[in-house]
Each structure stands twice: as C-alpha cells, then as structure tokens.
Design goal:
Keywords: Mitochondrion, NAD, Transferase. InterPro entries: DHS-like_NAD/FAD-binding_dom, NAD-dep_sirtuin_deacylases, Sirtuin, Ssirtuin_cat_dom. This is Deacetylase sirtuin-type domain-containing protein. By secondary structure, the chain is of the alpha/beta class. It is built from 10 helices and 7 strands. It has a single domain, classed as Rossmann fold, CATH 3.40.50. α7 links the parallel β4 and β5. α2 packs across α8, α5 runs parallel beside α8 and α6 packs parallel to α7. It is globular. The mean pLDDT is about 85.
Length: about 250
C-alpha cells in the first residue's frame, strides 16, 4: 500500500505568487459582488481556524512548517501488529497534549461572518474540511458525505473557497468538479495552493480574517440593524492567532 502525504505540487510552490494584486477595500468589494451574483457554496479549510488559536500545518509559503512532519496513516493506526500499537500510543499521546487548546478554542470572526451569511440566506451551503468525525490520512470519506458535497457544488451557481491550500485531494476534486461544470470559482487564501496553476480560478491572496467580516456587514446591510441574531454574529468572534514559536498549539490540516 502506497499512500502519500497530501502536498502542493512543486510547480505551484515555485511559481510566481498568484492572485489578484488588489487592495483590501477592492477585495471586500469583489467578494461582495461575487456572493450576490448567485447561489454560493463555500468550501473552507484550516485557515479559517487560525484566528481561534489553532495553527495550520502549512505556512504562508505553502510548505509544512514542521520539516519533520509525518502524519499517522489510517492503515498504520489500525494495524494489529505491535507497530500498530506503537502508532496508537503516539496518536493518543499527541491527542492528549493537543486536546485542551482545541477544547478551549472559541469561534473567530471568520466563523461568525460565514454563519451570518448562511443565516441571512446570502450563501446557500458550507462544506468544511473540519467535520465532527476524524478522517485519517489514507482513510476514505464516507460515501454519503462525498455525494452530499458533490450535490452542494452541483446545486449552486458558484463556489467560494476560503482558507485552504487544497493539498488534500478530497477538497481539490470539489474545485475541479465546479470548474468542470463551468461554475465561477474564487479562492481566498494567503499563500500557494494546489489550484494555483488551474485556469478559470480567480484568487485573492489574503487571509480570510482580514476581510470576511466587512464582506458580511456590507452584504447584509440594513438587516443587521433589525435582526438581533445577525447583529450579535457580526459583533462576535475572537481574533487570537497562535504565536509562531509556540509548538504547544495543535495544528489543523487543510
């Protein structure tokens, strides 16, 4: 069995920085217009959780921040031999050390911005790479989850991708599916992604936390003055990114 670690192709890492070279105000305006153009499905990744204090595996250059990073694969975890026992010990020890920061993490401004857009009907669906169930590297996503995500792409007019390098193929293939269906795609992410060399993708090279709250406030407009739920959402969320040298903070995938 040969299973590789999810990665961004070397060609994308070595390419010149991609994405629209625009100001923050121009990015906010572009995203507002995009979301209002039709039924929008949103695909999110680890980048949306950084402001909650959970580090992504990859840095702004698209490479793993830990050069010795080696994930535990599903077949290793489930191995009945003694080596499988050691893999399980390693997994549970790391989970024991990393769980408290995840347990105590609070939703950030990006989470609330997306929730407000969903609550107000301005986006139709959200597909997240952080489901309540753990999916290991090398493990298959449940068939019903895969089919539902495909259906979400097919029933929308366009796709907004937020905070992910798309290194994991299960997410990348959703973008390819949207492109195959001739649906507009905007990618909001800081740094290289697996999709950078694909044509017909519009990329905004910025972190989601810097602009999505303003996007939500402008789109929702007067509604946030009348709806107490929306008003609360647009005023909520932590901004607590982890310190770059604090290795106690767990890393998310994506």
């Amino acid at each position: 069995m040969r299973i590789s670690v999810p990665h961004i192709p070397q060609a994308s890492l070595l390419a010149k920085p991609s994405g629209l070279q625009i100001t923050r105000a121009e990015a906010v305006d572009r995203l507002c217009r995009f979301i209002q153009e039709g039924r929008t499905t949103v695909l999110t990744g680890a980048g949306v959780s950084v402001d909650s204090g959970i580090r992504a595996y990859r840095g702004p250059d698209g490479r793993y921040m830990n050069p010795n990073y080696k994930p535990i694969f599903y077949h290793e975890l489930m191995d009945d031999a003694e080596k499988g026992h050691h893999f399980r010990q390693r997994y549970w020890l790391r989970s024991y050390l990393g769980y408290p920061p995840v347990r105590d993490a609070q939703p950030n401004t990006t989470h609330f911005a997306l929730a407000s857009l969903l609550h107000s009907g301005n986006i139709s669906r959200i597909i997240t790479q952080h489901k309540p169930e753990v999916v290991f590297f090398g493990e298959s996503i449940k068939q019903e989850v895969k089919q539902r995500s495909y259906h979400d792409i097919e029933s929308s007019d366009q796709l907004l991708v937020v905070g992910t390098t798309l290194a994991t193929y299960s997410a990348f293939r959703l973008v390819k599916h949207a492109l195959d269906l001739k649906k507009p795609v905007i990618l909001l992410n800081l740094g290289p992604t697996r999709a950078d060399l694909l044509s017909n993708i519009e990329k905004i090279n910025m972190a989601s936390g810097t602009i999505l709250v303003d996007v939500a406030r402008l789109i929702i407009g007067r509604e946030n003055q009348a709806d107490p739920v929306l008003l609360n959402m647009l005023q909520s969320g932590v901004v607590n990114p982890p310190l770059p040298d604090d290795d106690r903070v767990p890393r998310a995938a994506g």
